[in-house]
Amino acid sequence: MSVDRRKVAVFGAAFVLRLLLIGLFPSLPDLLTGRVEVSTPVNSFKRLQEGLFLYTRNVSPYDGGVFHQAPLLLPLFALLPDVRSSPLPTAIFYFLVDLVNAHALSTISESGQSIQGKLHSAVRKHIRWDGVSVAAWFLFNPFTIATCLARSTSVFTTSGILFAVSNAVGGNNVNAMLALGFASYLSLYPALLFIPLILLCYDQRTQNPLPNVAVFVAQQGAILLASVSGLLGLSYLITGNFWEFMSATYGFHLLVPDLTPNVGLWWYFFIEMFDSFREFFLGVFWLHLASYVGGMTVRLRRQPLFIITSLLGVFAIFKPYPSISDASLFFALLPLYRHLFPLMRYTFVAISVLLYSTLLGPAFYHLWIYAGSGNANFFYAITLVWSLGLSILLADSIFAALRDEWEQAHPEAQGVEVKQV
Amino acid sequence: MSAAIRNLRNNPKLLFVRLPNFLSFLCIVVGVVWLLLLPLNDYSRKTYISENALLPGQVHAYFSGSEQNVFRGYKQELDGLLNEGRERGGQKDDAEVTSTVSGKVQSIFLAVGLKIATQKYEYTSAGITHQGENVYAIIHAPRGDATEAIVLVAPWKTADDELNLNGVTLALTLARYFKRWSLWSKDIIFLITPDSKSGTQAWIDAYHDMHPESVQPLPLKSGALQGALVIEYPFDHHFNTLHIVYDGVNGQLPNLDLFNTAVSIAGGQMGIGSNLQEMWEHKDSYEHRLQTIFRGMTKQGLGYATGAHSSFMPYHIDAITLQPKGHGWEDEMALGRTIESICRSLNNLLEHLHQSFFFYLLMQSNRFVSIGTYLPSAMLIAGNFTIMAIALWLRTGYYLENKPKAAAQPKDKKKSVEPTAQAKGNGVEERHLALPLTLVVGLHLLGLVPLWMFNTLFHQYFTMATYIFVVVDIVLPLLLAALLSNGLGPFAPIIPQQYLLIKSFSLLLLGLSLSTLATLNFSLSFMIGLLCAPLCFITRLRTSSAPLRCSVSGLGLVLLNLLSPPTVLLGVCWYTGVSVETVLTQAAFGWDVWGMWTQVVVWCVWWPAWLIGCVLLGSSMF
């Protein structure tokens, strides 16, 4: 196997950059770990430490209501040396996870699935970035670096999703479902990607009589269920109390009891709400989030990988506990659609809005929490702007994908300015 | 109207080149005029006490009569010790004086019946070591539960480095006097620091357990600090006005209510006039108001600590310094009563000061403008860069003047493979982003080098470093411009579109940094915005005649170099008569001790933007 020198250079540079950052600024990881933009109650490394402390002392990690992450992370992190005395091994572990994610991403890109699917073939095939560039885009994205340095456990969910997709485009649907099971086990919401992932797997089937759709779905569903229940079983063995960890993790994801500020739209809304409406709006918010799956799947049936990409964008905006790691996953998959960039109309606006909110968010949080001269509305306004920026980017990319599909159907209309079709 | 719009659509040069220039210029002009309008009565307001619990001047202040004898006694004791020290070793032998005097201060506090503690600290910055020992004492509130406290600070050296003997004595007398009252519901902490620069910083850091290793932790603590007053009285004669200093580190300000309380108690209850921003002769005219605003903005923008009170601000503790000034008939007892009355008002507080404004510009002790009124001026100036950045971005996509020339350079791979590609987009030109992005990001990171340098060098090299930097600022843009025009490393020589993109990205970053900054430190954002304003209108010249181009761009570069950060620093130092070394030593001290970040803005926002402007102009020579 020939070693791709460019890839080695990019991966090596990304690794060295992260190492340099923690070497030059030793307090940076702890600073980032404490930032609300990076660490939410469901992926915070600080909370993981708390859970780990309880776990290693044979107390239920969910006692005290601080830790809300999957139990299997505990034995994994118990293997690593203590972070306070020797932070380097944990940091390097996270760096490696990032590299592995980037590798999965480059595999997805190399498959060319984003350009040439079974049912769709992009018009501007020549405009594309190779796998190494896409991986570099992911590895050198400041949001990815911040997530990695903050040791947020979202990176494992990211790995699960990226591996599910990379296996699916490789036609390896059992592994894809196992990876998706892992991601869903960690964070619950990736389970919503089941349908587009099935489509992606199904489109990879090449045997002549295509398998029956219902049977195929049932098979894959069974694999997913088996993997999730296997992981849950292991978790039961670790914690010993099934319902306690279920309610502390998935119950926490579903019912959103912790309203610590984050970059999402839920916390402020639920702080302001009267308690009697809480259940109703929880249902509405979750329904809203889940409803995108159906709509996108129907409308973009011909490009299943694009459904996954845009759904990840939707999750980054509308999840109950989003952080910049979700945005970085969305940004990681977008360069696969480099051929759509010429069709997008508001990239500059969207990127300016995102840059503005990236700078103003911490500033307003500072004014609110530390300086005391601002209030919660300052920060909430910026999270709205951030979500607006992401929405513009998402809507614009969906527009571009639809336009691409339309141009494929109407080759004569390429490059023509169209107002209404 | 519709005719004008149609005209615009049909005339891309007007739409993409003239209009943005005009809009940007308009933004700058309106921004500046806006600021100039603020002193008018229509745009400013009279101050008022917003927190009703404060009740300023509603209590009788009893500090007088026999307390004056106590004051004189303490003063004589301290003066004697100081003189002894002076006779033995002169002013030089500070350590000796400090330890005996500090022992005396402690014994006085102990005799009054207070708990005392000391704290040693040491800071090193720019090769200078600052060390000392804080002494503090706590009156436990008879009616409180030690969850809240007020701080009275008396530094041995005032902000102007004068011996603050009367101030310290007054603090000791007040300690004795306050101890006898049973009405305090908040603890009162008396803090005697050796100087105004580092002592309070060490103490307040340690109070919140945020101190570096060279600073001792505090053995004795009280509750959450609600407010702090710094007492300065560095002369022996009577005074006639009270100068109130309120600027904090990084331009943070105390709650306006605290300032108003001090003004209202001094003026209303004691009949002492108050001044601010060293405006001794304030006639309440437009010029004087504007001058006061400008002085306030300068201090806020530079972000240094203007007194011992400044260190409290980052911890969200409102603090002011009271400085008696002038010759008059008010004595130390009047100052003591003022402080007593302010303490009584703070004692009344039910919650932390929050009612009134934290962002304001004062133009007179009883007149101010609030953030909603003044913010647009800085935002307009920051916005002008954003407008230009967006216009340049659009221009690179839709309108390039010399199109045939751009198309005649199909050196880029994508273009040569599929020359029709760009036409197939949305009718949008393909933009080549890699080089502009790398350059802009790289130059911003390069700003870390001078930032690091000017904060770690030893103080004796600062002047030399500044001159070296002036030279670097002349050479570096030309070097970069030459490299860009002739191609560097893996990059092909730059194409005209990329010059516009470089400018667009640089201005976008500048605009968004400045608008963020405007919410944190209005004045700094305004000043940097004005200094950067020419960058908006600088482009690569494209006149065909080479000599003309070279001479015009050379002249432009000379003018721009007059606006570079080191030149501006030298100019300001020359104008104010302060040495460059003093300014930079102070800045390094601010960075190391106060947590001041003005330098970050200068080197990582202003300097890169300036450098890119120079590169663009310089590139017209090649």
UniProtKB/TrEMBL annotation, chain A:
It comes from Penicillium alfredii. GO terms for biological process: attachment of GPI anchor to protein; GPI anchor biosynthetic process. Pathway: Glycolipid biosynthesis; glycosylphosphatidylinositol-anchor biosynthesis. It is a multi-pass membrane protein. Pfam families: PIG-U. PANTHER family: GPI TRANSAMIDASE COMPONENT PIG-U, PHOSPHATIDYLINOSITOL GLYCAN ANCHOR BIOSYNTHESIS CLASS U PROTEIN. InterPro entries: PIG-U. This is GPI transamidase component PIG-U. One of its GO terms (cellular component) is GPI-anchor transamidase complex. It is found in: Endoplasmic reticulum membrane. Keywords: Endoplasmic reticulum, GPI-anchor biosynthesis, Membrane, Transmembrane, Transmembrane helix. The chain crosses the membrane at residues 7-25, 129-156, 176-201, 213-238, 250-268, 280-298, 304-322, 343-365, 377-402. Belongs to the PIGU family.
UniProtKB/TrEMBL annotation, chain B:
GO terms for cellular component: GPI-anchor transamidase complex. It holds the Pfam family Gaa1. GO terms for biological process: attachment of GPI anchor to protein. Keywords: Membrane, Transmembrane, Transmembrane helix. It comes from Penicillium alfredii. This is Uncharacterized protein. PANTHER family: GLYCOSYLPHOSPHATIDYLINOSITOL ANCHOR ATTACHMENT 1 PROTEIN (PTHR13304:SF0). The chain crosses the membrane at residues 21-40, 374-394, 433-454, 466-488, 524-543, 555-577, 597-618.
